[in-house]
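Reproducibility note. Readers wishing to regenerate the assembly model reported in the main text can use the exact inputs given here. Chain order matters: entities are listed in the order in which they were concatenated for prediction.
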Amino acid sequence: MRPISGKRRETLAAYGFLIPNFLGFLAFTSIPVVLSLIMAFTHWNIFKQPFWVGMENFSSLLWMHREGGRLVPNDPFFWQYVYNTVFLMAAIPLGMAGSLIVALMMNQKLKGIVILRTIYFLPAVCSGVALLILWKYLYNADIGLINKLIRMVGEYTYLSRVSGFFANPPDWLGTVHWSKPSLLLLGLWGGLGGYNMILYLAALQGVPSSYYEAAEIDGASGWAKFWAVTWPMISPTTFFILVMSIIGGFQGGFMTANVMTGGGPAGSTTTVEYYLYQTAFEKFNMGYASAIAWFIFAVILVLTLLTWRVGGKVVTYE
Amino acid sequence: MNRLRRSTRIALYAILGLGAISMILPFLWMISTSIKQPNEVFASGGGLNFLPSHLFWRDSMLGGEKIRAWWGNYPDAWHEINFFRLYLSSIFVAVVGTFGQVLTSSMAAYAFARLTFPGRDKLFFAYLATMMVPGSVTMIPVFVIMKHMGWINSYQALIVPGIFSAYGTFMLRQFFMGLPSELEDAAKIDGSGYIGIWARIILPLSKPALATLSTFTFMGFWGSYMWPLVVTITEQQRTLPIGLRYFVGQHATNYTQLMAGSMIALIPVLLLFLFNQRYFVEGIKLSGIKG
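Running the prediction on these inputs yields the following C-alpha cells for the assembly.
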C-alpha cells in the first residue's frame, strides 16, 4: 500500500523537524551511554589503547576480599564516599519539611509577604561558586562570621566559661566530625526558600477553598484540616520534589567539595560524584570511573522505582 | 482563608523575620568584607566590626604611597580575575546554547505534538526513557568524543553537548499539545507549509513556555560547573564559575578581594532576578506541572 502523498509529505516534514535534535541526541546521549557501558569493562587511561578486563572494575568497586580472616571491601574509600553521599542526602527530607513549613507560613495573608519571599529566595538565585566561597569564609575557624557570633554569644552570656564550645568554636570545615553537618546545614540554608518552597506554595494555592470549608463543617481544627485536606492535596508535589531530589542528591556534592573542601578532611566530604571526577579526570582511570557512573545510575534507578512504587499508593491525584 | 488572630500573626512575623535575617546576614557580611581593608578582616578581638573603619574616608595609612577608595577591592578584583573576559565567555556560551536548545527542542516538539508519522510514539518514549540517564554516565564518553573531535578547550565543547535536551523537547511538546488547532487548520487552507505553521503559528502562541524554557536553560548554562571544569584548560575559554574557582585557588586567604569578586559575579544575577521575579516564580511553577 503506497501512502498518499499528503501523508508522505507530513512524514518527511516530521523527520526534517526531528533531525537536528535527534542527531544531537544520538551523539551526546545514546552513543555515549553505549560507550560508557563498554568502557566500564576496560582499563583505559585515554592516552594508550583500552583493554578489556571483564568484570574487574565492578569487582574492585563493589566486592570484598579476605584479609587476615576478615572480609574487607576491595575499595574501602568508595564505601566511605557512598556513606558521605547518603549522609548529605539527609538534607532532602529535612529540607522538604522546612520548605513546606515556610510555604505554609508564606501562604497566609500577611503584609510584606512578597518582600519576605524575595529574601528567602535569594540563596537559591545566588547558588553557585560565589555563594560557596562566601560560606567557606563564614565557616572559617578564626575570622568566620559564624564563630565570631558564637564567641560573642559566649562572652555576653558567660557561656564561654562553662563550655569550651563557646570559647573555642570548632573548625567547621576542617574537622572530620563537623565537615559533613556543616555542608548539610549549608544545603538546608540554600534550599529552604528556593524552588521547592515555590512549588509547595503553588500547590497550596491550588487547593480549592471549598475543601477547607467542607472540613470545617465537619468540625475539623487547623491541624486536622492540614492532614485531611492539605497534605493529600499537595502529595503529588511532595512526590515530584522527592523523586527529583533523590536523582539530584545521589549525583550531588561535586561543586561544594571542589570549591570548599577539596573532598576533605580525610575524605569526609568526598561524595560519589566527586570520586568519579577524581578517578576520571585526575587519575585518568576512565574504565573505573565509568563503573562508578553505572553504580550511580543503578542506585538512582532503584531509588526512583521504589519511590514510584510507594508513591503510587500514597499519592492522591484529583 | 480566614483572617488570622493577632497573636498568630505576631508569631508568624517573628519566625519568618528570624529566618529572613539568617538568609540575608551572610550577604550583608559579604558586602561588608568586600569594602574592608585586608588587615581589618584578620583583626582579632570581640565584636563583629560590621562597618569597616575606613568606610567614610580615603585610606592613606597603609604605607602612604597608595591611596585607596573604600570600594578599592572591586577594581582590584575586576582586573585580577579578568572579569570582562569571563563575563563575555559566560554570556556567549549561555546565549548561543539557549538559542540552540530552544530552536532544536521546539522543532522536535512540533513534530512530536502536531505531526503524525510512523514510529512517533515509540521514538518519543525513547526520548523520555533517556531522561532517566544521569549526567554522570554520559559525561566521560562525551569528553572522549570531544577529545577525538579536537574540541577540548573550545567554545563548541562548552555549548554543543548542552544544546540537545530531551527535557526541553518534552516540556514544549506538552505545551504544544494543548494549543487549539483552528489557527493551524486555517493556515493550512491558506497554503502555509509546515515550517510556516511552526514559525508563524506555534512559536508565537507558545511565548510563555518558550520564555520558561529559555530562562531555565540560560540559568543552566550560566551556572554549569563540572562540565566547563572538565573541558576547559586555558584561561581564554573559562566561564565565570570556573574563573572564580581559580581565583580562590590563587588567593585562598585574600578575603576582601574574594568577596568583592564574588559580589561582582552575583550582582547581575541579583538584578535580573529582582526585576523579573514574576517570571522566575511562574517558571518554577510550570516546571513542576506533572502529566
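We highlight two features of this model. Residues 83-114 of chain B form the longest helix (32 residues). DSSP finds 15 helices and no strands in chain B.
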